[in-house]
Design goal:
With about 120 residues, this protein is an all-alpha fold. Helix content is about 50%, strand content about 0%.
Length: about 120
């Protein structure tokens, strides 16, 4: 007869992600993503994230007011500065990310079109 499983040691169901330790009983097994990024530094990973999250010039007009996108850009930039040890540059970017999320700032008008009042 198989021993009863211990519910206290099983991961909670729902949105919690399983880790290699949950599955294999060890953390020495790497996920495919970990294996891909293993050779990259934290700064290189942050830079790649920043490049992915930065609005491209081609879609700037359509997404310049998207608060989540703009906050993500600022958080990624702040992360780069934090990894470089430059908290003085990171803090204003984090503050701007919060301002996008709490709606205390908005996108300025496009300099090519001016203020259409």
């Amino acid at each position: 007869m198989a021993p009863a499983s211990n519910p206290a040691s099983a991961p909670a169901s729902g949105s919690q992600k399983l880790t290699p330790k949950d599955i294999f009983g060890s953390t020495s097994i790497k996920s495919p993503l970990q294996a891909k990024v293993e050779g990259l530094s934290d700064q290189e990973l942050a830079q790649a994230l920043m490049e992915r999250l930065t609005l491209a010039e081609a879609n700037w007009h359509s997404k310049k007011s998207n608060r989540a996108i703009r906050a993500k850009e600022q958080v990624a930039a702040a992360l780069i500065y934090l990894l470089k040890g430059d908290k003085e540059e990171a803090l204003p970017r984090l503050e701007q990310a919060v301002a996008w999320l709490n709606r205390s700032i908005s996108a300025p008008p496009c300099p090519d079109h001016g203020d259409r009042k």
